[in-house]
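Write out a record, focusing on structure:
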Amino acid sequence: MTGRPRRRRRVRVLVAGVFGAVLGFALVGAVVADRVAPLPLGTVGDVSREVVDRHGHTLHVFLNGRDRWRLAAEADDVGEQFRRLLIAVEDRRFHRHPGVDPVAVARAIWQNLAAGRIVSGASTLTMQVARLIEPRPRTLRAKVIEAVRAVQLEWRFTKDEILGLYLTLAPYGGNIEGVRAAARLWFASRPDRLTLAEAALLVALPQAPSALRPDRWPARARAARARVLARGVAAGVITAEAAAVAAATPVPARRGSMPRAAPHLARALAAGARSGQTVIETTLDRGLQRAVEALARREAATLHPRAGLAILVAETATGAVAAYVGASDPFDHRRHGPIDMVRAVRSPGSALKPFIYALAFDDGLIHPETLVSDASARFGGYAPANFDGGFRGELSIREALQRSLNVPAVRLLDRIGSVRFAAALSAVGATLVLP
Protein backbone atom coordinates (compact mmCIF):
# COMPACT_ATOMS: atom_id res chain seq x y z
CA MET A 1 0.00 0.00 0.00
CA THR A 2 2.86 2.38 0.70
CA GLY A 3 4.38 1.82 -2.73
CA ARG A 4 1.46 3.32 -4.64
CA PRO A 5 1.38 6.68 -2.75
CA ARG A 6 5.12 6.98 -3.20
CA ARG A 7 4.81 6.37 -6.93
CA ARG A 8 2.05 8.99 -7.11
CA ARG A 9 4.24 11.47 -5.25
CA ARG A 10 7.10 10.77 -7.64
CA VAL A 11 4.76 11.29 -10.61
CA ARG A 12 3.51 14.58 -9.13
CA VAL A 13 7.09 15.73 -8.59
CA LEU A 14 7.93 14.73 -12.17
CA VAL A 15 4.84 16.51 -13.51
CA ALA A 16 5.67 19.65 -11.55
CA GLY A 17 9.26 19.54 -12.74
CA VAL A 18 8.33 19.04 -16.36
CA PHE A 19 5.70 21.76 -16.18
CA GLY A 20 8.12 24.18 -14.56
CA ALA A 21 10.70 23.46 -17.22
CA VAL A 22 8.17 23.89 -20.06
CA LEU A 23 6.76 27.15 -18.68
CA GLY A 24 10.21 28.50 -17.91
CA PHE A 25 11.43 27.62 -21.36
CA ALA A 26 8.36 29.23 -22.91
CA LEU A 27 8.85 32.46 -21.00
CA VAL A 28 12.56 32.69 -21.74
CA GLY A 29 12.00 31.56 -25.31
CA ALA A 30 9.31 34.18 -25.81
CA VAL A 31 11.64 36.97 -24.70
CA VAL A 32 14.36 35.78 -27.07
CA ALA A 33 11.98 34.97 -29.94
CA ASP A 34 10.27 38.33 -29.72
CA ARG A 35 13.56 39.95 -30.64
CA VAL A 36 15.09 37.31 -32.90
CA ALA A 37 11.94 35.87 -34.52
CA PRO A 38 8.97 38.26 -34.29
CA LEU A 39 5.47 36.91 -34.71
CA PRO A 40 4.70 36.18 -38.40
CA LEU A 41 1.50 38.21 -38.62
CA GLY A 42 1.63 38.86 -42.36
CA THR A 43 -1.12 36.38 -43.21
CA VAL A 44 -3.48 37.68 -40.52
CA GLY A 45 -4.40 40.66 -42.67
CA ASP A 46 -5.26 38.46 -45.66
CA VAL A 47 -9.00 38.78 -45.22
CA SER A 48 -11.86 39.01 -47.70
CA ARG A 49 -12.69 42.45 -49.01
CA GLU A 50 -16.20 43.48 -48.09
CA VAL A 51 -18.31 46.11 -49.88
CA VAL A 52 -21.01 47.60 -47.65
CA ASP A 53 -23.95 49.94 -48.18
CA ARG A 54 -24.62 53.28 -46.50
CA HIS A 55 -25.90 51.50 -43.38
CA GLY A 56 -22.95 49.11 -43.10
CA HIS A 57 -24.89 46.15 -44.49
CA THR A 58 -22.82 43.75 -46.58
CA LEU A 59 -23.40 44.00 -50.33
CA HIS A 60 -20.56 41.98 -51.83
CA VAL A 61 -17.72 39.82 -50.51
CA PHE A 62 -14.56 38.69 -52.32
CA LEU A 63 -12.38 35.66 -51.62
CA ASN A 64 -9.07 36.48 -49.92
CA GLY A 65 -5.65 35.90 -51.45
CA ARG A 66 -5.80 32.17 -50.64
CA ASP A 67 -9.30 31.71 -52.07
CA ARG A 68 -10.84 31.54 -48.61
CA TRP A 69 -13.91 33.24 -47.20
CA ARG A 70 -12.37 35.05 -44.25
CA LEU A 71 -13.96 38.14 -42.72
CA ALA A 72 -12.11 40.09 -40.05
CA ALA A 73 -13.73 39.65 -36.64
CA GLU A 74 -13.40 41.10 -33.16
CA ALA A 75 -14.37 39.74 -29.77
CA ASP A 76 -17.46 41.98 -29.68
CA ASP A 77 -18.74 40.54 -32.98
CA VAL A 78 -20.00 37.43 -31.18
CA GLY A 79 -22.68 37.30 -28.53
CA GLU A 80 -21.92 36.78 -24.86
CA GLN A 81 -23.37 33.25 -25.00
CA PHE A 82 -21.02 32.24 -27.82
CA ARG A 83 -18.01 33.71 -26.04
CA ARG A 84 -18.79 31.97 -22.73
CA LEU A 85 -19.44 28.64 -24.47
CA LEU A 86 -16.21 28.86 -26.49
CA ILE A 87 -14.08 29.60 -23.43
CA ALA A 88 -15.83 26.89 -21.37
CA VAL A 89 -15.07 24.28 -24.02
CA GLU A 90 -11.66 25.34 -25.32
CA ASP A 91 -9.88 27.23 -22.55
CA ARG A 92 -11.61 27.72 -19.19
CA ARG A 93 -8.73 29.77 -17.76
CA PHE A 94 -8.26 31.89 -20.88
CA HIS A 95 -8.49 35.15 -18.95
CA ARG A 96 -6.06 34.00 -16.23
CA HIS A 97 -3.09 32.35 -17.96
CA PRO A 98 -0.13 33.95 -19.81
CA GLY A 99 -0.69 31.99 -23.03
CA VAL A 100 0.21 28.60 -21.55
CA ASP A 101 -2.19 27.18 -18.96
CA PRO A 102 -0.21 25.62 -16.05
CA VAL A 103 -3.19 23.61 -14.81
CA ALA A 104 -3.97 22.22 -18.26
CA VAL A 105 -0.33 21.30 -18.87
CA ALA A 106 -0.09 19.52 -15.53
CA ARG A 107 -3.34 17.65 -16.13
CA ALA A 108 -2.30 16.59 -19.64
CA ILE A 109 1.09 15.32 -18.46
CA TRP A 110 -0.53 13.42 -15.59
CA GLN A 111 -3.18 11.82 -17.82
CA ASN A 112 -0.70 10.95 -20.57
CA LEU A 113 1.78 9.40 -18.13
CA ALA A 114 -0.99 7.45 -16.42
CA ALA A 115 -2.28 6.13 -19.73
CA GLY A 116 1.13 5.49 -21.22
CA ARG A 117 0.11 7.34 -24.38
CA ILE A 118 -1.18 10.74 -25.48
CA VAL A 119 -4.82 11.00 -24.43
CA SER A 120 -5.02 14.70 -23.59
CA GLY A 121 -3.60 17.97 -24.88
CA ALA A 122 -3.15 21.34 -23.24
CA SER A 123 -3.66 23.81 -26.05
CA THR A 124 -5.04 27.16 -24.98
CA LEU A 125 -6.95 29.45 -27.30
CA THR A 126 -3.78 31.52 -27.54
CA MET A 127 -1.76 28.46 -28.55
CA GLN A 128 -4.41 27.65 -31.17
CA VAL A 129 -4.04 31.17 -32.56
CA ALA A 130 -0.27 30.61 -32.73
CA ARG A 131 -0.86 27.39 -34.70
CA LEU A 132 -3.31 29.11 -37.06
CA ILE A 133 -0.82 31.91 -37.72
CA GLU A 134 2.10 29.54 -38.20
CA PRO A 135 0.86 25.98 -39.01
CA ARG A 136 3.23 23.14 -38.11
CA PRO A 137 3.03 19.32 -37.91
CA ARG A 138 1.67 18.02 -34.58
CA THR A 139 4.95 17.19 -32.84
CA LEU A 140 6.42 17.86 -29.40
CA ARG A 141 8.81 20.39 -30.95
CA ALA A 142 5.89 22.18 -32.63
CA LYS A 143 4.04 22.21 -29.30
CA VAL A 144 6.97 23.91 -27.59
CA ILE A 145 7.17 26.51 -30.38
CA GLU A 146 3.41 27.09 -30.04
CA ALA A 147 3.89 27.69 -26.32
CA VAL A 148 6.61 30.26 -27.03
CA ARG A 149 4.50 31.95 -29.69
CA ALA A 150 1.51 31.96 -27.33
CA VAL A 151 3.47 33.86 -24.70
CA GLN A 152 4.58 36.29 -27.43
CA LEU A 153 0.96 36.82 -28.42
CA GLU A 154 -0.04 37.49 -24.83
CA TRP A 155 2.81 39.93 -24.57
CA ARG A 156 1.76 41.86 -27.66
CA PHE A 157 -2.04 41.70 -27.55
CA THR A 158 -4.90 42.00 -25.12
CA LYS A 159 -7.14 39.02 -24.40
CA ASP A 160 -9.92 40.49 -26.54
CA GLU A 161 -7.50 41.02 -29.43
CA ILE A 162 -6.31 37.41 -29.16
CA LEU A 163 -9.92 36.22 -29.14
CA GLY A 164 -10.51 38.38 -32.22
CA LEU A 165 -7.59 36.68 -33.98
CA TYR A 166 -9.08 33.27 -33.19
CA LEU A 167 -12.51 34.36 -34.41
CA THR A 168 -10.92 35.59 -37.66
CA LEU A 169 -8.65 32.61 -38.39
CA ALA A 170 -10.45 29.53 -37.06
CA PRO A 171 -11.44 27.01 -39.78
CA TYR A 172 -15.10 26.07 -40.19
CA GLY A 173 -15.05 23.56 -43.04
CA GLY A 174 -14.08 23.84 -46.70
CA ASN A 175 -12.72 27.29 -47.50
CA ILE A 176 -14.57 29.01 -44.64
CA GLU A 177 -12.43 30.77 -42.05
CA GLY A 178 -13.54 33.01 -39.22
CA VAL A 179 -16.79 33.13 -37.31
CA ARG A 180 -18.36 35.92 -39.39
CA ALA A 181 -17.95 33.98 -42.63
CA ALA A 182 -19.09 30.77 -40.91
CA ALA A 183 -22.23 32.37 -39.44
CA ARG A 184 -23.18 33.77 -42.82
CA LEU A 185 -22.43 30.66 -44.91
CA TRP A 186 -23.83 28.06 -42.53
CA PHE A 187 -26.74 30.02 -41.03
CA ALA A 188 -27.23 33.20 -43.13
CA SER A 189 -26.79 35.08 -39.88
CA ARG A 190 -24.47 37.34 -37.94
CA PRO A 191 -22.37 35.85 -35.13
CA ASP A 192 -24.06 38.06 -32.53
CA ARG A 193 -27.48 36.70 -33.52
CA LEU A 194 -26.76 32.97 -33.41
CA THR A 195 -29.07 30.63 -31.55
CA LEU A 196 -27.57 28.31 -28.92
CA ALA A 197 -27.70 25.39 -31.37
CA GLU A 198 -25.88 27.43 -34.02
CA ALA A 199 -23.30 28.78 -31.58
CA ALA A 200 -22.56 25.29 -30.23
CA LEU A 201 -21.98 23.92 -33.73
CA LEU A 202 -19.58 26.77 -34.57
CA VAL A 203 -17.70 26.16 -31.32
CA ALA A 204 -17.35 22.50 -32.29
CA LEU A 205 -16.43 22.82 -35.98
CA PRO A 206 -12.83 24.13 -35.62
CA GLN A 207 -11.93 21.00 -33.64
CA ALA A 208 -12.10 18.96 -36.87
CA PRO A 209 -13.52 21.16 -39.64
CA SER A 210 -13.27 18.63 -42.47
CA ALA A 211 -14.61 15.69 -40.47
CA LEU A 212 -17.48 17.64 -38.86
CA ARG A 213 -18.92 19.52 -41.85
CA PRO A 214 -22.68 19.37 -41.29
CA ASP A 215 -23.48 19.22 -45.02
CA ARG A 216 -21.35 16.08 -45.40
CA TRP A 217 -21.29 14.45 -41.98
CA PRO A 218 -24.51 15.52 -40.21
CA ALA A 219 -24.37 12.74 -37.59
CA ARG A 220 -20.81 13.67 -36.63
CA ALA A 221 -21.73 17.34 -36.51
CA ARG A 222 -24.70 16.64 -34.22
CA ALA A 223 -22.55 14.50 -31.92
CA ALA A 224 -19.83 17.17 -31.73
CA ARG A 225 -22.43 19.83 -31.01
CA ALA A 226 -23.92 17.64 -28.25
CA ARG A 227 -20.50 17.32 -26.61
CA VAL A 228 -20.07 21.10 -26.66
CA LEU A 229 -23.52 21.56 -25.13
CA ALA A 230 -22.74 19.01 -22.42
CA ARG A 231 -19.51 20.84 -21.59
CA GLY A 232 -21.44 24.09 -21.45
CA VAL A 233 -23.93 22.60 -18.99
CA ALA A 234 -21.09 21.18 -16.86
CA ALA A 235 -19.39 24.58 -16.81
CA GLY A 236 -22.63 26.28 -15.82
CA VAL A 237 -22.80 28.62 -18.81
CA ILE A 238 -26.04 27.14 -20.20
CA THR A 239 -28.93 25.23 -18.65
CA ALA A 240 -29.67 21.57 -19.26
CA GLU A 241 -33.10 22.49 -20.66
CA ALA A 242 -31.64 24.92 -23.19
CA ALA A 243 -28.99 22.36 -24.16
CA ALA A 244 -31.66 19.70 -24.75
CA VAL A 245 -33.62 21.99 -27.07
CA ALA A 246 -30.46 22.96 -28.96
CA ALA A 247 -29.34 19.33 -29.31
CA ALA A 248 -32.66 18.46 -30.98
CA THR A 249 -32.29 21.20 -33.60
CA PRO A 250 -31.30 19.99 -37.11
CA VAL A 251 -27.87 20.94 -38.42
CA PRO A 252 -27.68 22.81 -41.75
CA ALA A 253 -27.97 20.49 -44.74
CA ARG A 254 -26.04 22.79 -47.09
CA ARG A 255 -23.86 25.86 -46.96
CA GLY A 256 -25.12 29.14 -48.30
CA SER A 257 -23.42 31.77 -50.42
CA MET A 258 -21.86 35.15 -49.85
CA PRO A 259 -23.69 38.32 -50.93
CA ARG A 260 -22.91 39.29 -54.52
CA ALA A 261 -24.94 42.48 -54.98
CA ALA A 262 -23.78 45.24 -57.35
CA PRO A 263 -21.02 43.01 -58.80
CA HIS A 264 -19.78 45.45 -61.45
CA LEU A 265 -19.45 48.36 -59.03
CA ALA A 266 -17.98 46.11 -56.32
CA ARG A 267 -15.24 44.86 -58.66
CA ALA A 268 -14.36 48.39 -59.73
CA LEU A 269 -14.18 49.62 -56.14
CA ALA A 270 -12.12 46.63 -55.01
CA ALA A 271 -9.68 47.15 -57.87
CA GLY A 272 -9.20 50.75 -56.82
CA ALA A 273 -9.06 50.15 -53.06
CA ARG A 274 -5.93 51.07 -51.17
CA SER A 275 -3.63 48.34 -49.88
CA GLY A 276 -4.91 46.86 -46.64
CA GLN A 277 -8.43 48.27 -47.04
CA THR A 278 -10.81 45.44 -46.14
CA VAL A 279 -14.13 47.28 -45.88
CA ILE A 280 -15.27 49.49 -48.78
CA GLU A 281 -18.13 51.85 -48.00
CA THR A 282 -20.65 52.97 -50.63
CA THR A 283 -23.76 55.17 -50.80
CA LEU A 284 -25.88 52.28 -52.08
CA ASP A 285 -28.96 51.13 -50.18
CA ARG A 286 -29.09 47.33 -49.89
CA GLY A 287 -32.89 47.08 -49.97
CA LEU A 288 -33.19 49.31 -53.03
CA GLN A 289 -30.26 47.55 -54.70
CA ARG A 290 -31.99 44.18 -54.35
CA ALA A 291 -35.26 45.57 -55.69
CA VAL A 292 -33.59 47.19 -58.71
CA GLU A 293 -31.61 44.03 -59.50
CA ALA A 294 -34.86 42.05 -59.44
CA LEU A 295 -36.45 44.66 -61.71
CA ALA A 296 -33.55 44.35 -64.15
CA ARG A 297 -33.94 40.56 -64.30
CA ARG A 298 -37.69 40.83 -64.93
CA GLU A 299 -37.30 43.43 -67.65
CA ALA A 300 -34.45 41.53 -69.35
CA ALA A 301 -36.73 38.51 -69.66
CA THR A 302 -39.06 40.59 -71.87
CA LEU A 303 -36.28 41.73 -74.22
CA HIS A 304 -34.43 40.09 -77.10
CA PRO A 305 -32.10 37.31 -75.83
CA ARG A 306 -29.06 39.38 -76.77
CA ALA A 307 -30.32 42.72 -75.46
CA GLY A 308 -28.65 44.11 -72.37
CA LEU A 309 -29.71 46.76 -69.90
CA ALA A 310 -28.28 48.78 -67.02
CA ILE A 311 -29.87 50.84 -64.25
CA LEU A 312 -28.38 53.67 -62.20
CA VAL A 313 -30.48 55.21 -59.41
CA ALA A 314 -29.31 58.51 -57.93
CA GLU A 315 -30.90 60.65 -55.23
CA THR A 316 -32.12 63.96 -56.66
CA ALA A 317 -31.29 65.90 -53.49
CA THR A 318 -27.66 64.80 -53.11
CA GLY A 319 -26.67 63.03 -56.32
CA ALA A 320 -25.63 60.00 -54.24
CA VAL A 321 -25.90 56.71 -56.12
CA ALA A 322 -28.46 54.53 -54.32
CA ALA A 323 -28.54 51.54 -56.70
CA TYR A 324 -26.18 50.36 -59.43
CA VAL A 325 -26.92 47.57 -61.91
CA GLY A 326 -24.29 47.15 -64.61
CA ALA A 327 -26.17 44.26 -66.28
CA SER A 328 -29.25 42.17 -65.60
CA ASP A 329 -27.09 39.05 -65.18
CA PRO A 330 -23.30 39.44 -64.95
CA PHE A 331 -22.84 35.80 -66.06
CA ASP A 332 -25.08 35.96 -69.16
CA HIS A 333 -22.59 36.25 -72.02
CA ARG A 334 -25.37 36.42 -74.64
CA ARG A 335 -26.34 39.79 -73.15
CA HIS A 336 -22.69 40.76 -72.57
CA GLY A 337 -23.33 40.46 -68.84
CA PRO A 338 -19.69 40.77 -67.72
CA ILE A 339 -19.55 44.28 -69.25
CA ASP A 340 -20.55 47.13 -66.94
CA MET A 341 -23.05 48.93 -69.16
CA VAL A 342 -23.26 51.84 -66.72
CA ARG A 343 -19.64 52.74 -67.46
CA ALA A 344 -19.26 51.26 -70.94
CA VAL A 345 -18.48 53.66 -73.79
CA ARG A 346 -21.33 53.40 -76.27
CA SER A 347 -23.61 55.53 -78.43
CA PRO A 348 -25.67 57.56 -75.95
CA GLY A 349 -28.70 57.82 -78.24
CA SER A 350 -31.68 59.47 -76.59
CA ALA A 351 -29.86 59.79 -73.26
CA LEU A 352 -28.44 63.15 -74.43
CA LYS A 353 -31.78 64.71 -75.46
CA PRO A 354 -32.89 65.85 -71.96
CA PHE A 355 -29.58 67.69 -71.57
CA ILE A 356 -29.96 69.41 -74.95
CA TYR A 357 -33.44 70.62 -73.97
CA ALA A 358 -32.24 71.64 -70.48
CA LEU A 359 -29.45 73.79 -71.92
CA ALA A 360 -31.93 75.34 -74.38
CA PHE A 361 -34.24 76.11 -71.44
CA ASP A 362 -31.35 77.78 -69.60
CA ASP A 363 -30.55 79.87 -72.67
CA GLY A 364 -34.18 80.98 -72.99
CA LEU A 365 -34.47 79.55 -76.49
CA ILE A 366 -37.55 77.46 -75.67
CA HIS A 367 -40.06 76.54 -73.00
CA PRO A 368 -42.14 73.32 -72.74
CA GLU A 369 -45.00 74.65 -74.89
CA THR A 370 -42.82 76.11 -77.67
CA LEU A 371 -43.81 74.66 -81.03
CA VAL A 372 -41.19 72.89 -83.09
CA SER A 373 -41.23 71.19 -86.49
CA ASP A 374 -40.55 67.47 -86.80
CA ALA A 375 -39.99 67.25 -90.56
CA SER A 376 -37.27 66.12 -92.92
CA ALA A 377 -34.20 68.32 -92.56
CA ARG A 378 -30.52 68.27 -93.45
CA PHE A 379 -27.59 69.64 -91.41
CA GLY A 380 -24.55 69.64 -93.65
CA GLY A 381 -24.20 66.05 -94.75
CA TYR A 382 -26.42 64.70 -91.92
CA ALA A 383 -30.15 64.05 -92.34
CA PRO A 384 -31.60 62.82 -89.02
CA ALA A 385 -34.63 60.55 -88.96
CA ASN A 386 -36.76 59.08 -86.22
CA PHE A 387 -36.61 55.46 -85.08
CA ASP A 388 -39.75 54.48 -87.01
CA GLY A 389 -38.75 56.46 -90.13
CA GLY A 390 -41.76 58.79 -89.92
CA PHE A 391 -42.25 62.46 -88.96
CA ARG A 392 -44.88 64.08 -86.71
CA GLY A 393 -45.04 67.60 -88.13
CA GLU A 394 -45.54 70.54 -85.79
CA LEU A 395 -45.77 69.76 -82.04
CA SER A 396 -44.71 71.15 -78.68
CA ILE A 397 -41.25 70.77 -77.15
CA ARG A 398 -42.89 68.83 -74.30
CA GLU A 399 -44.29 66.25 -76.74
CA ALA A 400 -41.09 66.09 -78.81
CA LEU A 401 -39.08 65.17 -75.73
CA GLN A 402 -41.71 62.69 -74.51
CA ARG A 403 -41.61 60.92 -77.88
CA SER A 404 -37.80 61.19 -78.06
CA LEU A 405 -37.92 62.61 -81.57
CA ASN A 406 -34.59 63.13 -83.29
CA VAL A 407 -35.13 66.07 -85.67
CA PRO A 408 -36.31 68.58 -83.00
CA ALA A 409 -33.35 67.63 -80.78
CA VAL A 410 -30.86 68.12 -83.63
CA ARG A 411 -32.48 71.49 -84.52
CA LEU A 412 -31.92 72.67 -80.92
CA LEU A 413 -28.37 71.30 -80.83
CA ASP A 414 -27.63 73.23 -84.02
CA ARG A 415 -28.81 76.47 -82.33
CA ILE A 416 -26.88 75.79 -79.08
CA GLY A 417 -23.72 74.68 -80.83
CA SER A 418 -22.23 71.19 -80.54
CA VAL A 419 -18.91 72.43 -79.13
CA ARG A 420 -20.67 74.40 -76.39
CA PHE A 421 -22.91 71.44 -75.58
CA ALA A 422 -19.91 69.09 -75.30
CA ALA A 423 -18.17 71.60 -73.03
CA ALA A 424 -21.26 71.85 -70.82
CA LEU A 425 -21.35 68.06 -70.43
CA SER A 426 -17.64 67.94 -69.66
CA ALA A 427 -18.06 70.65 -67.00
CA VAL A 428 -20.39 68.39 -65.00
CA GLY A 429 -18.22 65.28 -65.39
CA ALA A 430 -19.83 63.66 -68.45
CA THR A 431 -16.97 63.28 -70.89
CA LEU A 432 -17.84 62.40 -74.46
CA VAL A 433 -15.60 59.93 -76.28
CA LEU A 434 -15.62 60.99 -79.91
CA PRO A 435 -14.40 58.97 -82.93
Remarks:
- Residues 319 and 364 are 26 Å apart (CA to CA).
- Residues 3-36 form the longest helix (34 residues).
- Confidence is low (pLDDT under 50) at residues 11-16.
